[in-house]
Amino acid sequence: MNGLNIISATIITIGDELLIGQTIDTNSAWMASALNKIGINIEKRIAIGDNWNQIWDCLEKENQTASIVLITGGLGPTSDDITKPLLCKFFNGKMIVDDAALANVKNIFENILKRPLLERNLKQAEVPDTCSVIQNERGTAPGMWFEKNNTIFVSMPGVPHEMKGMMSNYVIPALKKRFELKPIVHRTLLTAGIGESFLAEMLIDFEKNLPEHIKLAYLPNYGMVRLRLSANMQQSDEKTIDHEFEQLKAIVKDHIVADKDINIQEAISGIFIEKNLTLSIAESCTGGYISHLLTSIPGSSRFFLGGVVSYANEVKRDLLDVPQTLIETHGAVSIQTVEKMAEGVRKKTGSDISLATSGVMGPGGGSDEKPVGFVCVAMSTANKTISTTFQFRFDRTRNIELTAVQALNFMRKNME
Fold this sequence. Notes:
It contains 16 helices and 17 strands. The chain is an alpha/beta fold and about 425 residues long. The protein starts with 7 loop residues before the first strand and ends with a helix.
């Protein structure tokens, strides 16, 4: 199984909750990204319910084609967790107690959780004798590594935090040691203010002249488009992809937010920290969502002073000093009001720059003059206050998300 041949992987997530949408499958996306970075090709991502026959049939089928099969879910202590007994039978094993796993379970319940240890919890330390045990440093259910007919099977808990620990600390290093892998290298641009189809028109000749082993992908999301160049280092070198990336940047230079794979809030954070500026925010229609995006970034305390969710007109008036007469004359959703909101929060907090939003998010509340999706955004500094409007056309949640992204990008462009 060694050599520079393409190594393929299948990711299987198990659980009825995944099929009915009760739980969103983030595990397979994270695992796919982690495998892709080390040069493993993801051929399939499969979700299966808690059904013995379906899981068994899937394992048999993947055993014929995949080099690696990663499995998450079904390792808990309840009756619907069938993955471990199924794997025991599939790999012709018998259950034994793993001493290290047992010690881990006892430590968690007795010393950390300080709860009674039930028999069903002790059973989590049982594993098939045909596997190599992967100890769980973040939970009670151990992982299991099997091999059959030149295919590696790895079973891990469905809890994302636990799975990521096993993948990062054991599975990825073990796969890199087993296979001679060449990583897949990506170069990513984040663009804004231009649609995917317009970018594609701009890049017709660029795409046509790309080396065959370098691929360009368009990744649109919330009014922004990532442009990603990918090359398998088995067929290329970093100088070649770097050259093509510089060509790409030159063509779309007027629309670049960042020349690395980050989101808008990370780009904004970097700008404020680099320029040693502070920020405050007044949010009406976004309800604190912009503040949430920024404070989710480590280091945001270096520039973000705080914000006011001024949803009610009384809050706009009493906390942000927006004149009542202005609200009555122009409305809460207006350029005049949002500019005063921006000025008010900047003066209250003493920030260098402020940002404010007000709009109609829906599904009700719109009018002919200000329909659902109509948004006003303002930015204020000591020297100027500027504003703009947007018109979105989606549901409430997406309108809020689009408002946040476009407001941040409006501020970014006007900081330059």
